[in-house]
Amino acid sequence: MKIFVGLSGGVDSAVAAHLLKEQGHTVVGAFIKGWEPDFLPCTGAEDRLSAMRVAAHLQIPFITVDLSDEYKRLVVDPFVDEYRKGRTPNPDVWCNRTIKFGAFWNQVKKRGADAIATGHYAGTDGKQLHVSNDETKDQTYFLWTLTQEDLAHTHFPLGALRKSKVRDIAKRIHLPNALRPDSQGLCFLGHVDMHAFLKRFIEPEDGPILHDGVRVGTHDGVWYYTLGQHVSTNSSERLYVVSKDLGTNTLQVATKLTATEPKSFYTLTTLNWVSGTPPVGTVEAQYRYHGSYVRAQVEGVSVTLDEPVLVAPGQSLVFYSNGVCLGGGTIE
To answer: From the centroid of its chain, how far is CA 296?
Structure first.
């Protein structure tokens, strides 16, 4: 097959490309160029150079796919708009859906691609989305929007490997980025100060922080905060956001996340089942990346959890059963 591998500049996608070439596929390295703000230090140029070096080392063709306009329009703008509405979106989920498994596939398909591949820690047999063998690195939480159509032309070469093995392979074949640290943070932008980033798009507005009805501090806008987040106050106690009122621009805080807001019943939007059909019976739900699992029952767009949890509107609730990621939805 002719497979275009999304080379990010990191070691995972580099090893994915090597493994596919070793299997006899015709491999093309493709660097996805995303939108970069002019007010933050971004690593795009450095990442692209690293990806080029990997392609040269593996002796595979290299292209750059410019999706900066799509990324700004389909990921960044809706992301900021969600925060403006007081919600907490997950941009990595949107990035995977609209860019890596959307616009990228559409672009390389025109260049003769039979399939695409990434360095995600996940697995697929073309029909199901499997949890990675390295559960400490598993990334299926961010891939719940994938469909049968997506999986039919997608490869995850690292699904059966542990991260330590991936590093070993990189060193053994002398990849130029074998020791490069793992990237963290916002998809394509890397580590950014979310508060500072959002202030470029949403005007600050001071408001009260209340603890048991008593004002314990001032914040600069409820839209910058999410449920469960630690906030600095005048109190000697460590306090966390448990609710926020967009109308009055007020944050309510408590010493424990279980104080006021956890719920057992949630409604979902943008619900997607990878197999195309909803599960029957009890499943496992994950409400944050690498968070604990909670048993759940799904009926239509309604989810009942076996125990109350604090989840911010806009976040993903993802469902699993027997090592398979079934799909998920966005908390409404």
So the answer is: 22
pLDDT 10s digits, 138-154:
999 999 999 999 999 99
How far apart CA 310 and CA 136 sit, in angstroms, is: 22
Q: How far is CA 206 from CA 212, 228, 232, 325, in A?
A: 19, 20, 14, 41
CB atoms within 10 A of CB 166: 23
DSSP 249: T
Domains defined for the chain, CATH in brackets: 2-119+157-172 (3.40.50.620), 203-254 (2.30.30.280), 263-331 (2.40.30.10)
Q: State the pTM of this model.
A: 0.92
Residue 292 sits at φ, ψ, to 5 deg, of -75, 160
In the 3-class helix/strand/coil scheme, how is 92-159 assigned residue by residue?
HHHHHHHHHHHHHHHHHHCCCCCEEECCCCEEECCCCEEECCCCCCCCHHHCCCCCHHHHHCEECCCC
d(CA 215, CA 208): 6
Residues with catalytic annotation? 95, 187
Taking CA atoms, 245 is separated from 122, 215, 219, 250, in Å, by 38, 15, 12, 5
R_g (Cα) of the chain, nearest Å: 21
What token pair was written down for 241?
A: 């956001």
In angstroms, the first-to-last Cα distance of the chain is 41
DSSP 173-201: TT-TTTTPPPP-SBTTTBS--HHHHHHTT
pLDDT digits (tens, 9 = 90+) for 7-43: 999 999 999 999 999 999 999 999 999 998 888 777 8
DSSP letter for each residue of 1-64: -EEEEE--SSHHHHHHHHHHHHTT-EEEEEEEE----TTS---HHHHHHHHHHHHHHHT--EEE
For residues 71 and 77, give the distance between their C-alpha atoms in angstroms, rounded to a whole number.
9
The span from the CA of 33 to the CA of 28, in Å, is: 16
